[in-house]
Amino acid sequence: MKARLTEKLEAIRRGTDPRAFILADAKDADMAWGLSAPGAPYPADGPRWKSMPHFRQDIREVVEDGVIDILLASASQMSLLAHRQGVFRDSQVTPAIRANDTTDIWCGRGTSYRDAASRPFSSCYLEEAMYGSLQPAKGALPAVDLGLYSITFNNDLEADHESLTAFKAFRAEAQRQGFNYFLEVFAPNLEGRVAAADLPDFINDQICRTLAGVPMGNWPVFLKIPFLSPEAMEDLAAYDPGNLIVGILGGSSGTTYDAFKLLAEAQNHGARVALFGRKIKDAEHPVEFIRHLRRITDGEISAEEAVKSYHGVLQTHGLSPKRELADDMTLTANELSYAR
C-alpha cells in the first residue's frame, strides 16, 4: 500500500486527524456485469458500450489526477495497468483488486444467479494478483498488495457457513502471502431473509461476531458496508475505533446529489472511507466528480453546494449534465447491494 494510504489509516486509527478520509474508485465492474461493465459513452457517440481500452484510459486519468486514494480493478485489468504498464509506480494512488467474486455479483444479462443465496467463489489466485503470474521471478516485489474480499450474509445457515468457511481460508492465504484486504459486507441478496427494521443490527452483529474469532493482526484494514442508518453507522464506528475503520459502498448510479449527500451523511456519522463505483463511472466527468467528493470530505463544501459547483464545472468543460440541476438535486438511490 502507498504511503499516503497507510498514513491516513494510521491517522484514523489514532484519531490524530479528524478529517482524514479515504476515497476509493471501484473500477471492477467487469467482474460483475460482463461486456456492459465499462458503461455507456457520454456524450453518446458510436458504440453502445465503452471498450475496455477506453475504460482503462478512464482509470489512467483518475490515477494521474491523484485525488483518489485507492483504485480498485479486476485482476485482469491490474495485470496490464499495474504489472505491465506500471501505471501506479510513481503515484500515491494505491492499486487494489477484487479478491473474490461471490455469486450475488454475477450480474450478467440473462442470468438468475442472484435468485439463490450468495455462494463463495474466487476467480484469481492471490499470487497472480500480487505478481501478475503464478510463477513470479525470484526476488520480485508485488505490484498489488491490497484487495477487496466480499461476504453476503443471508441468515441462511448452510449458505452463511459456506461463506465464512471460505473467508477463513482466504484470511490464512492472505496472511501467508503478505496481502492486505478490506472487507465488504452486503445485505442479504434474497428478499425476506431479515426484516427491514432488523437489517442494520443484523449486519452490524454479523460483522462483529465474525471478526471476534479473528486475531486483530488479520482484521481487514477497513470495512465497506451499506449506509443503512445514521444510528447503525454510529454504533459500528464506536465499537472499536482504534482497530475497526468503517467505510461505505456506493451502490447504483443515482443522481449527483445521491452520491454527495450519501458521502456527507456517512462521514458525519462515523464513516472514514467511501468506495464508489457506478456513481463515479457514470458521471459526466469522473475526475471532476471525484474532486468534488474530496472537497466534501475536506469540509470545504456541503453536498448541496457541491452539486451546484459540479454543474458549473461541467459547463466549463463544455459538457451538458445528464439531468437538469433541479432533477439532479433529488435523492433516489438504493444502496443495499451491488446489483441494486
Short description:
By secondary structure, the chain is α/β, with parallel strands linked by helices.
Which features would summarize this protein structure in a list?
TIM Barrel; 340 residues; eight-stranded parallel beta barrel; alpha/beta; Aldolase_TIM; DhnA family fructose-bisphosphate aldolase class Ia
Q: What features would you describe in this structure?
A:
This is DhnA family fructose-bisphosphate aldolase class Ia. It comes from Luteolibacter rhizosphaerae. InterPro entries: Aldolase_TIM. The chain has 340 residues and is an alpha/beta fold. It has one domain: TIM Barrel, CATH 3.20.20. It is 39% helix and 12% strand. The protein contains twelve helices and eight strands. The protein has helices spanning 3-14, 52-65, 75-84, 126-131, 157-177, 199-212, 230-237, 256-268, 278-281, 286-297, 303-316, 325-328, and strands at residues 22-27, 70-73, 94-98, 146-152, 180-186, 223-225, 246-249, 273-276. An eight-stranded parallel β-barrel has the order 1-2-3-4-5-6-7-8, surrounded by seven helices. Helix 10 (286-297) packs antiparallel against helix 11. The two termini are 30 Å apart.
